Amino acid sequence: GDADALSKVAHILKSSSANVGAKALADCYRQLEHLARAHRIADACEHLPTVRDEHSRAVSQMRALLLEMT
After folding, report:
1. Which tens digit of pLDDT belongs to each residue from 12-61?
2. Mean pLDDT throughout 56-67?
3. DSSP string spanning 1-43?
4. CB 6 within 8 A of CB 43
5. What pTM, to 2 d.p., does this model score?
6. In whole angstroms, what is the distance from residue 64 CA to residue 45 CA?
7. Which of 26, 33, 36, 55 has the fewest CB neighbours in a 10 Å radius?
8. At 45, which helix (H) or strand (E)?
9. How far apart are CA 57 and CA 61, in angstroms?
10. Burial of 27 (0-12, 13-18, 19+ CB in 10 A)
11. Cα(14)–Cα(34) distance, rounded to whole angstroms?
12. Which residues does 64 contact at the CB level (< 8 Å), separation at least 6?
């Protein structure tokens, strides 16, 4: 169901974030994955604003790094 799908997606995003060095974002996705595996969908929904904020921060940092390289 929804919890299984969320868990899988969070796992993929956790790994991808870790691969690009976005540790804080990977930690957010780790927590989201944990909540989904526990079928705590309401808690996962409450965690989404934190995930979104950290995602925005990570994207901004990556953009800044790319600008430095050009």
Report:
1. 999 999 999 999 999 999 999 999 999 999 999 999 999 999 999 999 99
2. 95
3. -HHHHHHHHHHHHHHHHHHTT-HHHHHHHHHHHHHHHTT-HHH
4. no
5. 0.91
6. 29
7. 55
8. helix 41-69
9. 6
10. middle
11. 11
12. none
Q: How far apart are CA 19 and CA 35, in angstroms?
A: 22
Spacing of C-alpha 41 from chain mean position: 15
Q: How far apart are CA 65 and CA 44, in angstroms?
A: 31
8 Å CB contact between 62 and 19: no
Q: Which two tokens stand for residue 70?
A: 């050009």
Contact of 35 with 47, CB cutoff 8 Å: yes
Q: Report the distance separating Cα 64 and Cα 70, nearest Å.
A: 10
Q: Which two tokens stand for residue 44?
A: 């996962």
